[in-house]
Amino acid sequence: MSTDFAATRALFDLPEGLIYLDGNSLGPLPRAAAGRVAESVIDEWGQMLIGGWNAAGWMDQPARLGDRIGRLIGAEPGSVVLGDTLSIKVYQALASALDLAVPGRQVVLSDSGNFPTDLYMAEGLIHSLGRGHELRVVAPEAVAAALDESVAVLMLTEVDYRTGRRHDMAALTAKAHEKGAITIWDLAHSAGALPVDLAAVGADFAVGCSYKYLNGGPGAPAFIYVAPRLADRVRPALSGWLGHDAPFAFEPSYRPGRGIERMRVGTPPVLQMAALDAALDVWEGVAMADLRARSLELTDQFIADIEAACPMLTLATPRAHELRGSQVSFRHPQGYAIMQALIAEGVVGDFRAPDILRFGFTPLYTSGDDVAMAAAVLVDVMRQELWDRPEYLTRARVT
Ligand SMILES: *Cc1c(COP(=O)(O)O)cnc(C)c1O
Known about the structure:
Radius of gyration: 22 Å
Bound molecules: pyridoxal-5'-phosphate
């Protein structure tokens, strides 16, 4: 293995005595991020003021950082741009995909394992379009069979946020194309979690966020990918001024910018991108194949340790390597209370309704010793029923 994971771990500021298995929800702080943000605030905003847009390269950040993320997801140079939230990027991708779809096709096909906001955004867009589209949601295992000539757009999240189940992106993209459908892949639980090769699978659109496995910090911007063969043809639904071909010509009507630039909307979050830029430095020496191999070792180890000692927890994640992402989930009716007890013992995962205990595995800063320790603590919580306390039953606003 050529990647030095002890070295990458040293690049993060992790609280002492805590085992963090929630980097699939919010990545930890890269040590360099605070300094980078301070520089951007003090030297750029403070000293350059409006000049920062040119002198500090603020206006180029969305495409420059898009290329940095693009290398991690197999995207062609110049095919990824950052900005807004993932919910917004889902909306943009779907609107453009429906615009390109075979006329007369009405179905947007997705699955019940998709993250709610992806489905909600599709519902809202379909309502606004008022053209009678139908959002068809099937079980994850039933997607391939549901792909037929009625499907305009196939919109899926590669790795299921609850169970960690992973779709076969290459096979589903090929089948969708064979049926004449456009594909949108949400990489929220893939980017930085496992190797993705958008160009090789021939994906049309992809979107994702940068605050999970990419460690860009709370509120870090989302990304959108459009295949180069489509980028000059897509019509942006959110036709904001920074996606215009000449924003500073201030023309009275919209003309889309060149290629992926047209998927920009408004002013980019400059300070968030300074943090993300520092977070992306961590990936410089990382081979994605090494990351994947390590992630599978860690998840196998956790599954084996828990299953050996906790028959009351039911594995919700597929066992087959090719069928899972970089998280492990167990079901238990008292999942919420169990997670609160674990957090109190210094092991941080999270809970997803109705009954999922979720653990993210991130080789950049999680070692085999961490995993053994986390498993031992969970076994203790289960055997001694440490979760059975009234203060662990009240749900907080964010779970
Ligand atoms: C995390 C996640 C989101 C979050 O969307 P935001 O707009 O960034 O809040 C959306 N979709 C999926 C699949 C996710 O995992």
